[in-house]
């Protein structure tokens, strides 16, 4: 049977996902076959596996750090919030419907067999499983029938590493308070604590570390410094939304919808040094961008109406009317069309007018399209015409079907990944002048695509584009995972961590 370790946190966004990913990389480097696992994930950033199943993005990132192909058994339950009180529930990669929080918690224990089946599947194939918790194990209103923190640890008899975030203050109270609120049998599972996101001289912390160990009777196994690495994030607590950057040579404005999803699509553009990517949620922040991107959304109609009410729609229409470039992905693509119809009430029953910048009409249906795709850009017009013929790989996750005016130019030609039949290619997306849209998540990941977009904008602005160099996204991520492993080796007591797993 595989050895395991579980990473729990004193609250959300303390760095559990990154610590788990770093340990996956360390164990891989040490010669072990390692896999990540999270029984229940709540996130709007998701991914499609090779067999067309949907899972949380954090476990995909951790699987990449472990050097393995992501599979849905690493995240058997995914909750995708549709509003403040309900979520789409995805079990083993397939949606089973939208549930209110009350309804989901009523059925939560019914999902334990799926969790254990997925975990046992991994246990057969790997030497080590790194389990990630969610939120805090001391949420007393959620402890009953818990399946993601101490409840999960008990199901598989996992030792726990408890992580606290010092950057936001109060880390000693976080850790001591969490331990105090746990039951005795749960406290015994915590084999060590970790202080994360520390800035400064660790020696200043030493009196506090000693006091924390005395109060909790649990060893502190490391202080991890605040680090700046480019790792995929899965939820709206990400710090990238709050970066206050001055516009770069290429200024890209991304509309930050209330239900923004798969914002990891923008990471390859963010990684290019000449580019500033700003996430904006009000007309006052619009500025004078070189490109506006409408990303994915879990509630397309609601986010479209939000944009209409707060004045961003009018800004985009004026910007586009003056020749500005706009790119929509998935939900953003749907919004750029003429109308969105929702006859079955998938989101909000009825018909809503879109921005009208693309000759597209979208109809929501019950079936969710989940597939990996590969393809190339078709004959291109407008500012991005140099993308013509460039190939890409990505994936689709959406419940709408978009019909494009037959006289209009399509954006891409693609097929399901791995399907070698030439006739399986089909045209998708749409373009109209400097407005572009399609369903493909990850479309900017290929170096030639992100590099081509930046070069096209710089060329229009009269800059020399010879020095522009996009990143090979896969190689770049490998470098980030190796750096993360180095940081953890330097700051954690890895001997103690190996011992707690014995």
TrEMBL record:
Highest rank taxon of the organism: Bacteria
Listed InterPro entries: Class_I_gatase-like, CobQ/CobB/MinD/ParA_Nub-bd_dom, CobQ_GATase1, CobQ_N, CobQ_synth, GATase_3, P-loop_NTPase
PROSITE patterns in alphabetical order: GATASE_COBBQ
Protein name per Swiss-Prot or TrEMBL: Cobyric acid synthase
Keywords: Cobalamin biosynthesis, Glutamine amidotransferase, Ligase
One Pfam family named in its UniProt record: GATase_3
Pathway(s) the chain acts in: Cofactor biosynthesis; adenosylcobalamin biosynthesis
UniProt key word Signal: no
Any one GO BP annotation for this protein: cobalamin biosynthetic process
Active site: 330, 441
GO MF annotations, alphabetized: ABC-type vitamin B12 transporter activity; ligase activity
Domain CobQ/CobB/MinD/ParA nucleotide binding as annotated: residue spans: 5-226
Family that this chain belongs to: Belongs to the CobB/CobQ family. CobQ subfamily.
Gene coding for it: cobQ
Role: Catalyzes amidations at positions B, D, E, and G on adenosylcobyrinic A,C-diamide. NH(2) groups are provided by glutamine, and one molecule of ATP is hydrogenolyzed for each amidation.
Domain CobB/CobQ-like glutamine amidotransferase intervals: 251-447
């Amino acid at each position: 049977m595989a050895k395991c370790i579980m990473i729990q946190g004193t609250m959300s966004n303390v760095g559990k996902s990154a610590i788990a990913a770093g340990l996956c990389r360390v164990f891989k480097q040490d010669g072990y076959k390692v896999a990540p696992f999270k029984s229940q994930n709540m996130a709007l950033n998701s991914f499609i596996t090779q067999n067309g199943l949907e899972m949380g993005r954090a476990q995909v990132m951790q699987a990449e750090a472990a050097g393995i192909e992501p599979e849905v058994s690493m995240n058997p339950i995914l909750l995708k919030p549709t509003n403040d009180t309900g979520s789409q529930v995805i079990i083993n990669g397939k949606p089973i419907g939208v549930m209110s929080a009350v309804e989901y918690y009523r059925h939560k224990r019914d999902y334990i067999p799926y969790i254990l089946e997925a975990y046992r599947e991994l246990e057969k194939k790997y030497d080590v499983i790194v389990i990630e918790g969610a939120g805090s194990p001391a949420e007393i209103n959620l402890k009953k029938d818990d399946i993601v923190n101490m409840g999960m640890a008990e199901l598989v008899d996992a030792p726990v590493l408890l992580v606290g975030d010092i950057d936001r203050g109060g880390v000693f109270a976080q850790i001591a308070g969490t331990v105090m609120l746990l039951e005795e049998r749960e406290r015994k599972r915590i084999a060590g604590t970790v202080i994360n996101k520390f800035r400064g001289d660790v020696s200043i912390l030493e009196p506090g570390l000693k006091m924390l160990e005395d109060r909790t009777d649990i060893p502190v196994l490391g202080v991890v410094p605040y680090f700046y690495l480019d790792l995929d994030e899965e939820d709206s607590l990400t710090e990238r939304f709050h970066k206050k950057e001055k516009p770069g040579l290429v200024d890209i404005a991304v509309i930050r919808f209330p239900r923004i999803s798969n914002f990891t699509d923008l990471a390859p553009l963010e990684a290019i040094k000449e580019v500033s990517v700003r996430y904006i949620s009000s007309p006052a922040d619009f500025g004078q961008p070189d490109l506006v991107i409408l990303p994915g959304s879990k509630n397309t109609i609601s986010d479209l109406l939000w944009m209409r009410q707060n004045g961003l729609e009018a800004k985009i229409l004026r910007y586009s009317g003056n020749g500005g470039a706009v790119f929509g992905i998935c939900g953003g693509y749907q919004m750029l069309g003429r109308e969105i119809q929702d006859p079955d009430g998938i989101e909000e029953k009825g018909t809503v007018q879109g921005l009208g910048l693309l000759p597209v009409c979208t109809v929501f249906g019950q079936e969710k399209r989940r597939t990996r795709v590969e393809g190339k850009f078709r004959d291109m017009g407008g500012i991005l015409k140099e993308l013509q013929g460039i190939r890409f790989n990505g994936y689709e996750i959406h419940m709408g079907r978009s019909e494009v005016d037959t006289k209009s130019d399509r954006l891409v030609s693609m097929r399901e990944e791995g399907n070698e039949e030439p006739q399986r290619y089909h045209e998708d997306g749409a373009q109209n002048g400097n407005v572009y849209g399609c369903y493909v998540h990850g479309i900017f990941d290929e170096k030639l695509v992100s590099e081509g977009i930046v070069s096209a904008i710089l060329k229009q602005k009269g800059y020399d584009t010879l020095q522009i160099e996009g990143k090979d996204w896969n190689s770049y991520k490998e470098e980030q995972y190796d750096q993360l492993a180095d940081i953890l080796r330097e700051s954690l007591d890895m001997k103690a961590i190996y011992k707690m797993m014995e």
